[in-house]
Amino acid sequence: MKKMLVRAAVLAIFTAGFTAAAGIAGAGTALACETSSQRSDQLAASLPQVGYDDTGPDVLGLQIALRFEGYALNGTGVYSDNTLSAVRDFQFKNGINPSGIVGSKTWHALVGKKSVSITGNGGIQVPGFGIQPGEVNEDKLNAL
């Protein structure tokens, strides 16, 4: 359970950090120049395989990460048809077999390329509460 909370917190920090970084002028150029030690490969390697009909915080993080890649997904935490379509398209565009199963290659293409300053990969504070798919409690979401 603690591991799931850590992953959910990391993914939430990833999305919050990515939102903030997107507004910084030149952030794209700065991120492209970083070395591999500054990437979030460690986070990507720790994420579990997810696929159609899966639910939970890892699916929610996947949906939010795909939204930041330009896919029109809501963060439901349920891996259904819309998520499958977005995952397959993302995989195809990134040279990954478009199986719809999010494994190591897909996580690395989606999360691993991001800066650790965006994902919070390492040294994070684990919140003392859980986040459920479709969470609407703004206090919880803002606490991350």
From TrEMBL:
The keyword Signal appears for this protein: yes
Peptidoglycan binding-like domain ranges (all copies): 55-110
InterPro entries the record matches: Peptidoglycan-bd-like (IPR002477), PGBD-like_sf (IPR036365), PGBDSf (IPR036366)
PROSITE patterns: PROKAR_LIPOPROTEIN
Pfam families in UniProt: PG_binding_1
Signal peptide positions on this chain: 1-21
Coiled coil: none
Domain of life according to the entry: Bacteria
Keyword list, A-Z: Signal
Full protein name: Peptidoglycan binding-like domain-containing protein
